[in-house]
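Lab notes, practical 5.
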Amino acid sequence: MPTKRYKITLTPEERTFLLNLISKGKVAAQKLTKAHILLKADQSEGQSAWSDKQISEALQVSCATIERVRKTFVEEGMELTLNRKKHSRCGNQKFDGEKEAHLMALALFQ
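Output from the prediction step:
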């Protein structure tokens, strides 16, 4: 079995935070799944990490998802791993007065 490129090693504080998070009643499903992945993949001293296949079967997620969570945690940290990215909505931009006036002028002089 190839060695993992991104290894999860949680601090006791991070582990406690994740355990508290999954014990709460109202947390987004995606956030809960990522917390479970991090806890199962933890290779801290005294912790026995699950294989990606075991995590995949237990949580019903793909191995690619598990690898993405590992990568994000190692590169970006806990906060960005658990929380979704805010996507910019390019198609829903509001016009300010200046842009609206410019558009009206273009429409009138065509």
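Observations recorded by the TA: The first helix runs from residue 12 to 23. DSSP finds six helices and no strands in the chain.
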